[in-house]
Amino acid sequence: MATPDWTSPPLGPSEEALTILVVEDEALIRVALVDYLEDNGFEVVEAGDAASAIQLLLYGDITIDAVFTDICMPGEMDGLGLAAWIRQNRAGLPTIVTSGARRIEAGAEGGLCFFAKPYDCAEVTDRLQEMIAERRQRASAN
After folding, report:
1. DSSP string, the chain
2. How far apart are CA 98 and CA 112, in angstroms?
3. Alpha-carbon distance 24 to 7, whole Å?
4. Domains of the chain, each with CATH number or no CATH
């Protein structure tokens, strides 16, 4: 399985802590990504599958600013199913899906973005910040 590129230098903490839900069943990849995001000023909540992620989104006591999920995961729902659930139940929540085995076309519609593994963590953090800023701009315009 391809692993993300962890060689990019940290971007430094952001002025405002944003909370990212990382959904990844591969523990080593999840831990490395969580560490990278935290080193770059993000707050991170973790889940190992889609069902756990939905529980956090429904009943968690923290506001999630974006979701980063692998596509291929165990359980009844994969990462694309989770992304569809988010579009239906948390419309506009920025979502990045990733996979080393599948390629998909993802667009800005519904706040969905795709990164192929191995991904560059600096590009992921940049895109997360952009997607969250775009969401906040749309919300303030309404």
Report:
1. ----B--SPP----SS--EEEEE-S-HHHHHHHHHHHHHTT-EEEEESSHHHHHHHHHH-SS---EEEEES--SSS--HHHHHHHHHHHSTT--EEEEESS------TGGGEEEEESS-BHHHHHHHHHHHHHHHHHHHHH-
2. 11
3. 20
4. 19-141 (3.40.50.2300)
Is residue 112 within 8 A of residue 83, CB to CB? The reply is yes
pLDDT tens per residue, the chain (142 residues)? 445 554 444 434 445 689 999 999 999 999 999 999 999 999 999 999 999 999 999 998 999 999 999 999 999 999 999 999 999 999 899 999 999 876 766 554 455 799 999 999 999 999 999 999 998 898 888 7
